Amino acid sequence: MSIQNLMASSSSEGVSRRGFLRASAALGGGLLIGISLPGFAGSSQGQDSNFTPNAYIRIEPSGKVVFVIQPVEMGQATYTSMPALIAEELEVGLDQIIVEHAPADDTRYANPALGFQVTGGSTSVPANWKPLREAGAAARMLLISAAANQWGVAADSCKAENGSVFHPASGRKLGYGEVAGAAAKLPIPDTLALKPSSEFKLIGTPAKRTDGQDKVTGKAVFGIDVRPEGMKVAAITICPVVGGTLKAVEPGPAMAIKGVRQVIKTDNSVAVVADHMGAARKGLATLQIQWDGGQNASVSSEQMLEAIKKASMQPGRQSRKEGDAEGVLKTATRKVDAVYQVPFLAHACMEPVNCTVHVRKDGCELWVGSQVPARAKAIAAELTGLPEDKVEVHNQLLGGGFGRRLEVDFVAHAVKIAKQVDYPVKVIYSREEDTRHSSLRPYHYNHLSAALDEQGRPVAWVHKVTGGSILARWLPAAFKDGIDRDAVRDPSGPYAFPNISAYYVRHEPPEGIYPAFWRGVGHTQNGFMVESFLDELAHIAKIDPFEYRYPLLQKHPRLLKVLETLREKSGWGTPMGNREGRGLALTYCFGTYAAQVAEVSVQPSGEVKVKRITSVVDCGIAINPDSVVAQMQGGTIFGLTAALFGDITFKDGRVEQGNFDTYRILRINETPHFDVHIIKSEDAPGGLGEVSTVLIAPAVTNAIFAATGKRLRRLPIDPSELRQA
């Protein structure tokens, strides 16, 4: 998902440290450091009576350290990286910090980079890098001062280590819990001494994930695992035609199944509630349901493709203009034009979407894994008619998010069902329902043009993006002047062309198909197109793809270093076999510089085998290098799955794909060998969760061209285009 920087950027400049850090006594004694991160909606920084932190550290009299965290954990190691920032400055181990989910609250727990409660856009580490370290440092200094006061010594004669304060000269020691109450009465220091990187013990050092053991052993609780007292389970089916409605259903056959409690109807769905999922699924399978497909009953992928082709011929709204690209193209003697396409994509999270709801007359409780818990709370309040303060969201670990859990459609379905029963009900989508009723990364149909000089170098670049707008639906305030700024992200990559123009043509799919964030979105679409088209130009110029890019990246010395390292580590230029090739792709996104080389072989049947992926990444300071490697591997697999197999298609208004037999994911035996190299850096960290997803498709298709001479401008990769006659 790419949503950072779509709202006004936040900054702590001009806000006093006392304005976003406060010390007070925790409930039951101890120390509470409240963190009102700058830039979020509803902030009352500097107003003592209304201070509303959106994160906090609580040190209890027992010495236990609790961190209430805003970003959710959905596999990206947030519950390891965020506590590490605090632990480093607080002088405790990662194993000494207990992490708690933040409650659903857009005001108190807003993402500091975006202004509302959301996990996405690879913002968690960059947005919290400095504030959480300062909070940890403030707590450490208060605890040292409290201990020093108790001993009657100077604070600078004491030090903190492993959850205790020491006075080396006298050998005295006090645990944090013993001085937490006294520390709560002290003011936040005006100056905080953050550690230099040379003194880091945790940051930059590989660490085991704090949630790893519980996930491996099954102790971790995801949304699908919750079981409040008295809960029943519901299997749901939604009208298979997008935007369609329910006409009629006879519940009798399902009610005859042992364990079935109720058949529930909504405007566009039927759910069978039972004592357990087996009975619910069996009951649902017995029903003869009549649907009304409405205006979308004949919609097909072929129709949508023709419509978007036609729309792409419109001039569009100009989103970027540097120089006179159109003028240069008109007079150019060497000009290259291309059309690139990327398909609709679902998210295919390992945990299908689900939500458990208990609606009572006086309140409503939700147990759900959500990237936007405050939105889940709001939709429940709207549907039940309850005030929001009567709705409680128990956010759980997420078994994959990738943007799918930025939506609340599945929460709405669960609430509609729960309103018709008097007990908690867990609504679980089957894999097929999850795929066929997912929000989708939008279909894009893009035109690219370049004018080349006598050496084959680009002197003008025009990129026109055509597709549905995510922001117009999901974040209307960020959709301005008819332009979806996410859709036109990086229309020319990080390259410095003399003349650049970019345009956006908004073309929406039929109603009921919702363009949505998908682990990178605009970056993943335009990255494929820009890196592939530039590779075309390098081939025309008969210049090595690395050499072709170097002159265009002089404004990005960090990216040049990434490329130099990648060229060495990947074995670029060494001999390969018949129908084998290497492909290059690079990106600068989410504050991170990265590049990949893919090695592929193409069988006579056209099947593509990706053998090896070499990645080099400069993400600033790597808080946990192991997590960096995992993110680069996981994002690459996610993106490679999409490049090879990802395609949501429609026939008669219905999504044709269902389970993993028709919406394939990469299998273990198809997974390439990975080499990940991290550039050592002292710069502030960038985001990482979506970076490798941007790189892999163009790296592979460029490698396919090197192996076969066949240029692929449309995803997913079609083996029939690569078969030998």
UniProtKB/TrEMBL annotation:
It comes from the Bacteria. Keywords: Membrane, Signal, Transmembrane, Transmembrane helix. Pfam families: MoCoBD_1 (PF02738), MoCoBD_2 (PF20256). This is Aldehyde dehydrogenase. SMART domains: Ald_Xan_dh_C. Residues 217-295 form the Aldehyde oxidase/xanthine dehydrogenase a/b hammerhead domain. NCBIfam families: TAT_signal_seq. Gene3D superfamilies: Aldehyde oxidase/xanthine dehydrogenase, a/b hammerhead, Aldehyde oxidase/xanthine dehydrogenase, molybdopterin binding domain. The lineage of its organism: Bacteria, Pseudomonadati, Pseudomonadota, Gammaproteobacteria, Pseudomonadales. It comes from Pseudomonas putida. One of its GO terms (molecular function) is oxidoreductase activity. The chain crosses the membrane at residues 20-41.
